[in-house]
Amino acid sequence: MAYLELKNVSKQFGNVIAVHDFNLDIEKGSLVSFLGPSGCGKTTTLRMIAGFEQPDQGMIRLDNADITAVPPNRRDIGMVFQAYALFPNLNVGDNVAFGLEMKKLPKKEVNQRVTEVLEMVRLSHIANRYPHQLSGGQQQRIALARALAVQPRVLLLDEPLSALDAEVRVALRAEIRRIQSQLGITTVYVTHDQEEALSISDKVVVMNNGRIEQVGSPESIYRQPQTRFVATFIGTANQFIGKVHDEHSVECEHIRLQVADIRHFSKGEEVVVLVRPESVQIQFEPTQKPEWNLLEGIIETVTFHGAVTRIGMNVHDQRIVADITYSYATPISLGQRCWLTFRTESCQVMGVEK
Predict the structure, then answer these.
(1) DSSP alpha helices (H): ranges in the chain?
(2) At what angle do helices 136-149 and 107-120 cross, to 10 degrees?
(3) pTM
(4) Which pLDDT score, from 0 to 100, does residue 81 have?
(5) What is the reported pLDDT for 316?
(6) What are the pLDDT digits (tens) for 276-320?
(7) Which residues contact 14 (CB under 8 A, 6 or more apart)?
(8) Nearest to 225 by CA among 186, 198, 202, 191
(9) What is the predicted pLDDT for the residue at 303?
(10) Which residue has the higher pLDDT, 83 or 30?
(11) For strand 249-252 and strand 256-258, is the pairing parallel, antiparallel, or unpaired?
(12) pLDDT averaged over the chain?
């Protein structure tokens, strides 16, 4: 049975529907990310879980109890904000102790708990410093420590790393995952960063226009997107618009693509064929292989991305990209003629309305 449940939850602000018929079950001890573009409703959903916003419809249950109308301070939920929200007049230790003192716990227990969580976030050596003396990454870890100190049943993180530079973000997201796994605390993480969500989550909830587009593991979200929005929002996908020719091919404007079995589509039905860049190979001779598509193109861009190099090609006035690894030995130059090849099974076919 799910530990945190959202059933038919909706929220509207004036004429704007922020969240529509949101249904989700979250298992105890898991880390679930709400992922989507700005304005998709992910933060509003998080605030409804916290109790800062009241749903217009639906129900929120935590550990089999209906908490829909329970005030925020009685939900036993910890929240970490994007802006840290540390008290500038309190040192690190006192910031972390604040929630514990509000609960009127014994001083000895407060001190012990503060020591434990500061060690957990690896900042026990700066307990006497003030927020203005800390880096952005340190401030965010202290905000996390403060939320964890009260031992909440659920931890909510609202874009916690968006104000930090890239290197600190990567390091801190690994720390968050380490701490979450160590404590086994049920966590909901809001982000617009696809890489961030895919790298730390047990489950990803992709949202768009207030609705859930898809829920699944990071791998399934990337490899088996259920809608065109998910396929293009998560990573990059080459798109070919065409019509079903038969159960194994799609007729596009200048090419006919061979695809896996698509008999569930009708002949003549308009579809989009999606192909990930890492599935596309480049060759410089038009060698046709069984069950592979072969397209001719001209190389227009070569962009270095560290582990991979992204090659942009013009294929019948359409931009197609391929990702090649460092081990690719053949020299590549702008304006060079080439052939792109990819397996039929690498083609995912969807209706254009998705």
Answers:
(1) 42-50, 92-102, 107-120, 136-149, 166-183, 194-200, 218-223, 228-233
(2) 140
(3) 0.89
(4) 86
(5) 93
(6) 999 999 999 988 888 999 999 999 999 988 888 999 999 999 999
(7) none
(8) 198
(9) 92
(10) 30
(11) antiparallel
(12) 93
Residue matched to tokens 């254009």: 352
Q: Among candidates 229, 263, 234, 258, which has minimal Cα distance to 247?
A: 263
How far is 215 from 2, CA to CA, in rounded Å? 15
**Using CB atoms within 10 A of its CB, is residue 148 exposed (0-12), middle (13-18) or buried (19+)?**
buried
Say if residue 354's pLDDT is above 60.
Answer: no
- Signed CA dihedral, 57, 63, 69, 72: sign only: negative
Token pair recorded at residue 262: 């698509």
Q: How far apart are CA 296 and CA 235, in angstroms?
A: 24
Strand order in the sheet with 186-191: 77-80, 154-158, 186-191, 31-35, 203-208, 211-216
Q: Does domain 4-232 have CATH number 3.90.1280.20?
A: no
Tokens of 295: 């397209």
> CA geometry: angle at 218 spanning 235 and 59, to 5°?
115
pLDDT score of 329: 63
CA separation, residue 179 to residues 29, 144, 264, 271 (Å): 12, 10, 46, 44
Residue written as tokens 């809608």? 227
Place of tokens 């910031």: 95
pLDDT for position 307: 83
pLDDT greater than 90 at residue 352:
no
The full set of domain ranges for the chain reads 4-232, 239-351
Please answer whether residues 119 and 182 qualify as being in contact, where contact means their C-beta atoms are separated by less than 8 angstroms. no
Cα–Cα dist 191/271, whole Å = 30
In the block, tokens 């026990």 appear at 124
> What kind of architecture, by CATH, is found in domain 239-351?
Beta Barrel (2.40)
Dist. CA 265–CA 243, nearest whole Å: 10
Cα separation, 148 vs 99, whole angstroms: 10
Size of the chain in residues: 354
